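User: Please predict the structure of the protein below. I'd like the answer in structure-token form so I can feed it into my own downstream comparison script.

Assistant: Understood. Taking the following sequence of 444 residues as input:
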Amino acid sequence: MSSLAKLRRKDLIVVFTYAPVGLGHLRVTDALYEGLPQGIKPVLLGAQDKAIIGLHRLTSIHPILREIMEWVQRGRPEDIFTYFYRGWLRHRTKTIYQQMQTLLDQRLEKPQQVVVVATHFGLAHQLAAIKDRLEAEKKIKLFLAVQVTDDSPQQIWLVPGADLIFVPSQRTKRQLQAYGKTQNFKPVKFKVLPYPMNPKLSRKLTPAKLQQRQRQLNSQGQTAVKLIIPISGAAVGLKHFLKLSQTLEELSPRFAFYIVSRFSLYTQNFLRDILKRRTVKVFSHQADREVVNAYEGLYQKKVMALEITKPSEQAFKALLSPDQIGGSLLLFSEPVGRQEYDNLKFMRRHGLIPNPSDQDYLWRRAESGMAVERAALKLARHWRGLALPLDPVASAKFINWALEQGVFEQMLNYQPDQQAKLYQTELRPDGVKFFWQEVVNQLV
């Protein structure tokens, strides 16, 4: 019998909650859903606060508001912001309480156990605030599991009352536990597990498809290089991607672009303009879930060689190897928000991307058009991604240079370095499996 058989109990419900602030929380939810045993039909509850959606987008794209956002994510401003925001969330629970009450009352068979998986801190705090009330009124046992969606120890991710908080690293665990002690919160159980990657993207490529990826990144080859660009939910960097793709198209005929985006007022002009390029294909949808499905579907239908992405939760695709479906080489654009800077620190700490001095060396070589030295090519075998220059023209030149110099070719021969080997518990590609095993182990 499967170790996850307990989740099939008829008196148990699995509930996923997510927030509409970016696509990341939905991607993580989708990854965890894919790891459930067949036959389990979880319930999906999503917040629909349009004010939060608008605020998220504004603080992502407006330079001044972005600086304010990053300011309140550190130091004393973070202490004050977290205190008031946490209190506001935990007193604003009417909607989620009614949703949970309706869900429980409409079941034909009365549930005894409810497993709630929260991939956003907002709903996690609200559920923790009503957890005891629901258990008492509905005579159930509610297990609240929180998945932190970046390797960023921001105070708001400490959810008093949660049963288990999953984090991607020991570093984040230690810092959140230390914060909890300063606030005299009742201790919350933490579990360090590899970041949950969608099992569909973790499957091995067939030998023929692996050869396709290798041919695409052959420095001397002519095969088209499939490059996917997922546009963030906040529609960040549209002018940047437009200029980058245009420049790269001018530099080499080899690149074929696949744009995956939500279709909205914010993206329609960008999508119209970029579709004018002969090398571009666009996959756009109005619903978030369709956007996520389109992205995952492209990876299953096409062999993607490169991906340009913000260092959001997408950065953790670096845990996959190049012989897996989702194992394209990652090219990171400008980080937005503390969490994305922290994700890059995770990648550097684990040797998955170059350290700052090696990255600067590559940028300088590309800018001057100089050949890469043999020692740097040897180092490239330990990298799963590279950071791009901030300027879109410089980024395009860097990508083309890395292709011609064989940097990408070497990265396809990925071998974890000694630094990465120290963190094996944080670097596995099957975090979803361990997530559910740990949840089942905690159930009564």
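That's the full token string. The mean pLDDT is 88.
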